[in-house]
Amino acid sequence: MTIKFRKSLFCIIILALFHNLGWAQSSPCGTIVNNAQKTFESTFIDTISTLIELNRTINISIHVTKSSGGTTDVDLAVVNQAINEAGLAFDPIKVKFRIASFDTIDNYQLDFIKQGNNEKDIVKRYYKQQTINLYLVSQLTNSSNQNICGFTYFPSVKEDVVIIRKNCLTGAFLIEQLGHFFNLYHTHETIFGVELTNKSNCATAGDLCCDTEADPNLSGKVSATCELINLPGYTPSSHNYMSFSQLSCKCFFSKEQYIRMINTLVNYKNYLF
Q1: Does residue 18 have a pLDDT over 60?
Q2: Residue 254: φ, ψ to 5°
Q3: What is the per-residue pLDDT for 3?
């Protein structure tokens, strides 16, 4: 099965799932590239240049906070569906995800996490080695006290952590965070330089993937039917998981994005297998 056929098939499946659930919103991602990640990127080991099938299963440890009223406010069916959708997205490289454990956190003060503040408290207390630790909390803000839906640690951080607000958990948002976790950037990333539409600097600017078009940031620029709105000169895909498109539109990774994730898995995250 070719990558193009896979992309079409998975988009059909994922878009059908979103249509059935009525999800159409976009959600703010709090994952940002800091100086440590820039340094990591400058030494990134890129030894694999083609798509390969890894045939591995990665364990996810899920930690759910309780509210002051003692409730978790999490639907297990929603969690399972998000994990299943992640499996579909990573199927082209034969990486599966399984829930290894599901535990609750009785400390309601950790039900509200501020990025760069008490996030370390929840990570240190409940972290499980050799798994992706997915923390689900009721409230989540960045360091500027702005509400966000979630964030993850890039490979420059040795801890394997994803934190998502409970009412933001969808397959597409989890997949975006896993993309970051495996060293993908937003398609509109500018910390490495602004990518030109003629692709002349695509290997060193933007998201560092030449098979994703230059993206000026799609937030608010994609219709409910996934059409681009008022983007003269730009032709980014509204379906890429790492864009700021509507969640209901996002359904594929590009070939180079998969290859970046393969290199991260093989060279930096192989202890998760």
Answers
A1: no
A2: -80, 170
A3: 56
Length in residues, the chain: 273
Domains present along the chain, CATH in parentheses:
14-41+52-272 (3.40.390.10)
SS (H, E, C) 45-97: CCCCCCCCCCCEEEEEEEEEECCCCCCCCCCHHHHHHHHHHHHHHCHHHCEEE
What are 132's strand-pairing partners? 60
pLDDT-derived band at 24, boundaries 50, 70, 90: very low
Q: How far apart are CA 54 and CA 78, in angstroms?
A: 27
Whole-structure pTM over 0.85, yes or no? yes
Task: Check pLDDT > 60 for residue 14.
Answer: no
